[in-house]
Amino acid sequence: MKTSFIVRSLISVLLFCSSLVWAEESFKIGLILPMTGQSASTGKQIEAAARLYMAQNGTTVAGRKVELIIKDDGGIPDATKRIAQELVVNDKVGVLSGFGLTPLALATAPIATQSKTPMVVMAAATSSITEASPFIVRTSFTLPQCAVAMGDWAPKNGFKRVVTLVSDYGPGIDAERFFKERMQLNSAQVIESLRVPLRNPDFAPFLQKVRDLKPDALFVFVPSGAGAALMKQFLERGMDKAGIKLIGTGDLTDDDQLNDMGDGALGVVTSHHYSAAHPSALNKKFVEAFKKANNGLRPNFMAVGGYDGMRVIYEALKNTKGGQGGGDALLAAMKGQIFESPRGQIFIDAQTRDVVHNIYLRKVEKKDGQLYNVEFDVIKDMKDPGKTK
Ligand code: PHB
Fold it and tell me: Which residue CA neighbors atom 3 of ligand 1 most closely?
């Protein structure tokens, strides 16, 4: 009788101590980004946004210290996967996050599944990514959302014969397919579909082909960081003057590069979920704080994906009292979150774990001497059209 009392007391003391140790151990967030290579601007933007979120919201959540571990994968899928494995096994991160390109997210998905670690995709945007693991939650966007919005806008505005030009991988193929289907639904036509390599693309021969085809418009998807090169070559060839309207998803007129594209970019219409010129009080505060902390750098849609991703992780930590219940509990607390983002209202669909948000139609205009994507129309609360297929 007496011994069992002592044993029970000892067990409670041990349990109490281990919970103290647990609370003292920091909760680690692994943030894997391309900080070098072709997509380095994505890494720079997301890192800055994650640091800003932590500076604004503190580094202790539900009594537990939060630690951010940032790793550079150089945009190489094998590296992302290896880093994710090390972060899970050696550093014991509670969440994996980042993922600057679709192949990087897809390479890591099996690790999230096997280790039951929530994986917050802050950048990559191919529709199918969320289906690669039940532990994936996305705060970026999907290409079908943008392509469908543009496939409705273009024909209604007189662009009925269009050529598409996309980067030849997941998000480009999504953009091409969903834009084309929507155009056909609206009795308009994609007369040619061109795909350019993702790595070191030379747009010249493709643009020459577009010129010869003389469409009403050219619809473009290139990933963040590649828009300026395309814009330059489009203008150098005088394609705008030849009467070919440039349209696309907002990755083309990326806020990270837009202001350096020159006045030739004026009037370009794109569809996207975020513009630094989004006229809400929350966004104005976000843009100001971001610029202040980063030498005047303007945040782009990648930054917002990172900022919102951190919010989703922090709220999940709060709702699980600092991550109690492990990966399954954190994941459950991420699903269904609804909040105001710098982009507008955002919702993490509990069923698909994908982002539901507004898609805006925007036109490049000059404001206070700077080029911005100025929103002029909105499709509210758009789910990923890729999920209903
Ligand atoms: C992607 O690889 O999924 C991706 C990258 C950059 C973008 C959009 C999509 O701007």
Answer: 124
